[in-house]
Amino acid sequence: MSVLPAWKRAGRAGVDLALRPTAGRRVLPTYLVLGAQKAGTTSVAAWLEAHPSVLACRRKEAHYLDRHHDRGEAWYRTLFPTVAATRAIAARTGTWATGDATPAYLWHPAAPARAAGVVLDARLVALVREPAARAFSHWRHEQRAGRETRSFAAAVADELDGGVGPSYVDRGRYAAQLDRWRAVFPPGALLVVVSEELFADPAPGLARLVTHLGLGPHPRPGTLPKANEGGDFDTALPPEVAATVRAAVGGDWRRSSGDTSPGKSAAAARSDLSADESPTGA
Question: I want to staple 265 with a disulfide (CB 3.0 to 4.6 A). Which of 214, 237, 271, 274 is the partner?
Answer without folding.
Answer: 214
